[in-house]
Amino acid sequence: MSDRLQELTAFVRAGETGSFSRVARELGLSQPSISRMVASLEARLGVKLLLRTTRHVTLTDAGRTFLDRARQILGELNDAENAARGLDSLRGRLRVALSGAFGIREVIPRLPGFMAQHPKLSVDLMISDRTEDLIAEGADMALRLGPLANSGFGARLLGEAPRLAVASPGYLARRGTPQTPADLAGHDCILGPGLSGRRGWNFRRAGRAISVTVEGPIKVASADGVVACAKAGLGIALASRWMCRAELEAGELVAILSNYQLDGVELHAVYPGGPRPSLKVRAFSDYLAAELVHVT
């Protein structure tokens, strides 16, 4: 049985990644061994699952159908083993894709508590500021900030943090403190990714929407860069409380226009394999949701 499960695992990852060599590295085996496992599985089923070229493997129609069922079987087996041991005895590896800034500021400081609850579980943090392909990268879940793309993956809302307009005390001393969103027209504004990168910043007050056009000499492609620029006194920025909490507490940034509201930033756990996450994904999601509620 273990050989058949290993064949299933090799096929699933080959179908997901399109590469025998990558699967071999993941499983600590040789590339010919992975090829033989898949060939053995195909011979037993009597159907071609993968088309091979010298550089890539692709799924046949039968392979795509079988991949969905094989992935489900492996996931259910892993869940069954963990359920038998109990949630407090989760083991194996949890692979989490997340952005560097949010991971370093909010997730990693909270990892010791989670690891203490699940000492037999290891965690791979796949930190990158680009959106990972969860299937190809072999991630069990991703933490996504902001609006979700319609990917067909399962998702769970873990929390929401307010977005704030912030600036350094030094900048405000030089340029003055805006009292209304309209005052931003006379200030340097730092344009960043997502909603903070739009030239029109949208505020609300007493149920009324207020949109202002902002300009500035600095545009940054990362949320952490936006906060760093604001801290350096380069202008006014929009940032979620998650991203600027430490600077606010240290007095390095000051929240302005507090009588106006901005759309918050949502954090979702996203996972492949349908609406029901695995036990280990569920455990980490539950833990983060409970932890982050205290800082939103």
Structural description of this entry:
The protein has helices at 2-17, 20-27, 31-45, 61-85, 100-107, 111-117, 134-137, 169-175, 223-231, 241-250, 279-292, and strands at residues 50-52, 57-59, 92-98, 121-127, 141-145, 154-161, 163-167, 200-205, 208-213, 237-240, 254-256, 265-271. The protein has 296 residues and is of the alpha+beta class. The protein has 3 domains: 2-83, Arc Repressor Mutant, subunit A (Orthogonal Bundle); 86-161 and 266-292, D-Maltodextrin-Binding Protein, domain 2, CATH 3.40.190.10; 163-263, Periplasmic binding protein-like II (D-Maltodextrin-Binding Protein, domain 2), CATH 3.40.190. Strand 1 and strand 2 form a beta hairpin. It is elongated and about 75 Å long.
The mean pLDDT is 86
User: Which CATH class of the largest domain?
Assistant: Alpha Beta
Distance between the termini: 48 Å
Domain count: 3
CATH architecture of the largest domain: 3-Layer(aba) Sandwich
CATH superfamily of the largest domain: Periplasmic binding protein-like II
The tally of beta strands, per DSSP, is 12
β-strand amount: 15-25%
* Sheet of most strands: 5 strands, mixed
The spatial strand order of the largest sheet comes to: 4-3-5-12-6
The level of helicity is 40-55%
Order of helices and strands: HHHEEHEHHEHEEEHEEHEHEEH
CATH topology of the largest domain: D-Maltodextrin-Binding Protein, domain 2
- Low-confidence segments: none
What structural class do helix, strand and pairing data support? alpha+beta
Q: Based on CA inertia axes, which overall geometry fits? A: elongated
Task: Please identify the oligomeric state.
Answer: single chain
